[in-house]
Q: What sequence folds into this?
């Protein structure tokens, strides 16, 4: 959850709220969108929930557990899967697929998913204690043990606690973890942009969701309809359904906007990466029903070139694949970041734009009739290595203390508020924890809490 700061950076794991605020790319002129973001949840950093102080090899003390992001009265929990990067208050996070995250090249990512499904908060602390064969387990111990086990597979690092129960549960999770497949997105429409001639069915646009039913609304000129593969008008859809925008022959050039919404729980195990590349990546651990939204767009013309553009981050090559298509009957020349690409009628081409790991990008596609679309984001595909997992799956003893302001777990000494480390108390109330040891001040907006962190190699620090 929390972790270790690099110089000048705050390193803190955070839980994310799925707010129902989503970003989507639209097929219109002069638009801006993030690659892969046609239906991905976006949220910001929130408050510490549960955890303990642990020892991280080569770094000293850090905190392990869960944090929340809150909005509209909702709060969900996440764990860190990117220990050696930092984050800070107000950073926006985007739901993303494993292949577009720090898990892209991790052979153990399925084991992380198993841990999430068999640990806290999916299981209560008492249920996890029973499964792991320990007498009792607090929420702080459960959260810390789960984070330690996740770091074992996400960052190849064995953090340790001197709390015997935390140690036992972390070892049990690591030893029993097996591969589990990636969860599907909560709601996505793909592609986000389609184009064609008047008289055609434009699409397909595929719905991917874990909701039972998705409500649909098409904002379009009179006569233009949203239909299924059989040409029947639709107002709702389910997972894997294919949708089309049916445009009557002779219809003047125009656009339509498709909006999709559903109430569902974000799937546990969905990765969340920061929209800026220097911030830590998280993974969803606790969920609740929220409203989710996605959108896509269609563009048509009776003749001539009809352009569209979509983008997908490519972690294997290290950049962004921009796909430009032409649904018209004449070729068009696209400019992709200044590079000319001629697209034949009814065809498409992919243009790869290299992006350095951790860098933000802004990729602009322009074309005829004022077509312009810009894709923005940050490439975050690799964790920053900082440790090497030991051959033993059971962590050894280390220091521990409550990170949530509650009573320290059995066997853990209460920290003393000192400049050299530990957990001090300040901020909104006497029970609000302050994590010492990183070198920056982090304001957590949800509760008005200030985390003062000072970098001190080998001392107690969180982040």
A:
């Amino acid at each position: 959850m929390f972790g270790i700061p690099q110089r000048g950076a705050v390193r803190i794991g955070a839980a994310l709220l799925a707010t129902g605020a989503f970003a989507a790319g639209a097929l219109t002129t002069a638009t801006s969108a993030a690659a892969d973001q046609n239906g991905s949840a976006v949220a910001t950093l929130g408050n510490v929930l549960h955890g303990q102080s642990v020892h991280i090899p080569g770094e000293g003390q850090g905190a392990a557990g869960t944090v929340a992001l809150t909005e509209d009265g909702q709060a969900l929990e996440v764990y860190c899967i990117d220990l050696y990067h930092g984050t800070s208050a107000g950073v926006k996070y985007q739901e993303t697929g494993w292949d577009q995250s720090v898990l892209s090249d991790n052979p153990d990512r399925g084991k992380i998913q198993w841990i999430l499904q068999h640990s806290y908060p999916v299981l209560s602390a008492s249920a996890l204690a029973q499964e792991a064969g320990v007498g009792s387990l607090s929420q702080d111990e459960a959260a810390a043990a789960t984070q330690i086990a996740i770091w074992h597979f996400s960052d190849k690092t064995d953090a340790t606690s001197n709390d015997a129960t935390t140690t036992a549960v972390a070892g049990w999770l690591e030893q029993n973890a097996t591969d589990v497949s990636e969860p599907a997105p909560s709601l996505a429409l793909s592609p986000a942009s389609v184009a064609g001639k008047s008289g055609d069915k434009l699409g397909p646009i595929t719905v991917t969701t874990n909701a039972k039913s998705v409500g649909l609304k098409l904002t379009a000129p009179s006569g233009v309809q949203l239909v299924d593969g059989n040409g029947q008008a639709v107002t709702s859809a389910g997972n894997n359904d294919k949708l089309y925008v049916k445009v009557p022959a002779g219809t003047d050039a125009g656009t339509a906007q498709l909006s999709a919404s559903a109430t569902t729980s974000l799937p546990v195990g969905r990765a969340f990466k920061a929209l800026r590349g220097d911030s830590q990546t998280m993974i969803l651990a606790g969920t609740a029903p929220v409203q989710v939204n996605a959108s896509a767009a269609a563009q048509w013309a009776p003749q001539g070139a009809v352009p569209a553009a979509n983008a997908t981050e490519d972690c294997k090559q290290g950049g962004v694949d921009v796909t430009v298509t032409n649904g018209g009957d004449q070729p068009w020349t696209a400019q992709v970041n200044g590079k000319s690409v001629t697209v034949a009628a009814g065809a498409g081409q992919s243009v790869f734009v290299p992006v350095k790991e951790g860098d933000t990008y802004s990729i602009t596609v322009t074309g005829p009739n004022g077509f312009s679309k810009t894709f923005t984001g940050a490439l975050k595909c690799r964790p920053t290595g900082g440790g090497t997992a030991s051959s033993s799956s059971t962590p050894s003893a280390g220091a521990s203390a409550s990170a949530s302001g509650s009573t320290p777990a059995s066997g853990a000494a209460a920290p003393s508020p000192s400049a050299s480390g530990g957990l001090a108390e300040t901020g909104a109330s006497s029970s609000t924890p302050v994590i010492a040891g990183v070198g920056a001040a982090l304001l957590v907006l949800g509760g008005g809490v200030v985390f003062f962190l000072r970098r001190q190699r080998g001392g107690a620090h969180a982040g």
Remarks:
- The longest helix spans residues 139-154.
- The radius of gyration is 24 Å.
- Residues 50 and 66 are 5 Å apart (CA to CA).
- Confidence is low (pLDDT under 50) at residues 4-30, 387-463.
